[in-house]
Amino acid sequence: MLKGKVLIVEDQPNFRKGLTKMFEEGQLGWQVVGEAGNGQAALELLDQVKPDLVLTDIRMPVMDGIEFVGHLRRSYPDMLVVILTGYKNFEYAQAAVRHGALDLLIKPCTEQDVHQVMNKAYERFYEKYALLEKQHVQHKQQQDQELRAALMDLPYSLAISSSLDEILRGQELWLLHWVYENTAIHHYGKHDMSLLQFAFSNIVEELVKEAAIHARLLLVEHDRFVLIAESGMLDESLKAAIRDASLQYLKIRIEMISMGAAPTAKHLAGLYNRFKGWDESVDPHAAGEGIGGYGTTLSSNQARVKELEVQLMSAILMGQEDSLQQLLDRLVKELSSKSPEEMKIGALSLSIALLGTIQKQFDPDENSLLPKIPSDMPEANWTPEEVTLWASEQVKNFLLLFNNWQALKNDNLIEKAVKYIEEYYNEACRLTDVAAYVHLNASYFSVLFKKTVGESFTRFVTRTRMDKAALLLRNTDMKIFEIACAVGFDEPNYFTNVFKQQYQMTPKEYRNYRVPE
């Protein structure tokens, strides 16, 4: 699960540690990256820990929260801030809100209060993340277009020449060329080239990412890609993995040629022309294709995958299975409005986005060096009905994993609820209180509790109280009214009636009962 980073600024060590423990044990979507006892110490931490959210008290020594937030806003005008305050300091809190605080937490605050505010903060954090992700994709698309133009000796913006040089500095270039004895390429034909290019680019990019190498792959011509990677990082095992995965998944053989250290942008075309002539084989599908068309299409397809991942993550974060199901149904249905070629690419985009979401959200084995690509893909001769069926199967597999993950998550929440009941059975212990403690809607919590535990919430609480009462009756000399109070009953007579219903005898009879030898 995507987690935001939070900095806690609070001068009371015990309260600060309690908040930190709450974040560590809860499923709030946040991780604590720093703690500070006053505003001055927090300012010194900001650049170091780079939080997404600051949770700060107001009344603190050295530098109070108001002054701290004022300083913070000069360098981080958009950072999320939540204010901690006591009732007597409410006028200070109003001033903090004028500094752009997202919300307030009034001390003393319960765990439910913290959950409510931090969920609101997480929604805002994810909105910012999704926007930044979209901007990043658009910026990378523009850079890729300019780099592609430089490689092809086409006009590009000289104003960004220095930024391209910065991208190329310390990098090496690799030419990845499809070998045209490939039956897959001949089988798919010209109109399906975009599908193969899209699948191939995702295989390479995922393998490179899994190897923890910073790189980018450019489709320069329909059958030639240039990989820009950190110098000296592409070892033989990774190159073999790229070749093997391309052959295994796409039935495409490739040649990988080192082009050496990356030059400046203005010398890219000369270097590329020197190396692309190593194999003059001509693909019959290349005729008539515009030079930049494939690259633009590939960038758009890759951007679509990112967009789909954001949509899927948003639906999951809403915590409603119905909204995720509706989104997936709509995405599959939309495929039918596309042309046959676009339909195959759309189905593959959806499948790749589903697998990417699984990797990010469901915590699979991170040591597995597998491409983020389905084990199969739409074939050239498939009908629209077959493409739709294939996409539906990908969705079905995703939902199976999602439901398993959700069940495990729910089991953990119910386990937490049971522990809460066992600790606070002698208090009110209402369903609404426990549901709020595990941050679930009361109605949904009631259904989930019975499904998981096997009995209703009320019955479980009652049974827990009666079991505790039975222990006290057997092992102490406490009076019955004292035991009733100790297990959460204000009325001894009511306690007696409930106890009799469970044990078929009164508390007094239970205490005096001896099991026959």
Automatic annotation (TrEMBL):
<keyword id="KW-0238">DNA-binding</keyword>
<keyword id="KW-0804">Transcription</keyword>
<keyword id="KW-0597">Phosphoprotein</keyword>
<dbReference type="Pfam" id="PF00072">
    <property type="entry name" value="Response_reg"/>
</dbReference>
<feature type="domain" description="HTH araC/xylS-type">
    <location>
        <begin position="415"/>
        <end position="513"/>
    </location>
</feature>
<dbReference type="InterPro" id="IPR020449">
    <property type="entry name" value="Tscrpt_reg_AraC-type_HTH"/>
</dbReference>
<dbReference type="InterPro" id="IPR018060">
    <property type="entry name" value="HTH_AraC"/>
</dbReference>
<dbReference type="InterPro" id="IPR011006">
    <property type="entry name" value="CheY-like_superfamily"/>
</dbReference>
<feature type="modified residue" description="4-aspartylphosphate">
    <location>
        <position position="57"/>
    </location>
</feature>
<dbReference type="InterPro" id="IPR001789">
    <property type="entry name" value="Sig_transdc_resp-reg_receiver"/>
</dbReference>
<feature type="domain" description="Response regulatory">
    <location>
        <begin position="5"/>
        <end position="122"/>
    </location>
</feature>
<protein>
    <submittedName>
        <fullName>Response regulator</fullName>
    </submittedName>
</protein>
<dbReference type="InterPro" id="IPR009057">
    <property type="entry name" value="Homeodomain-like_sf"/>
</dbReference>
<keyword id="KW-0805">Transcription regulation</keyword>
<dbReference type="Pfam" id="PF12833">
    <property type="entry name" value="HTH_18"/>
</dbReference>
<dbReference type="InterPro" id="IPR018062">
    <property type="entry name" value="HTH_AraC-typ_CS"/>
</dbReference>
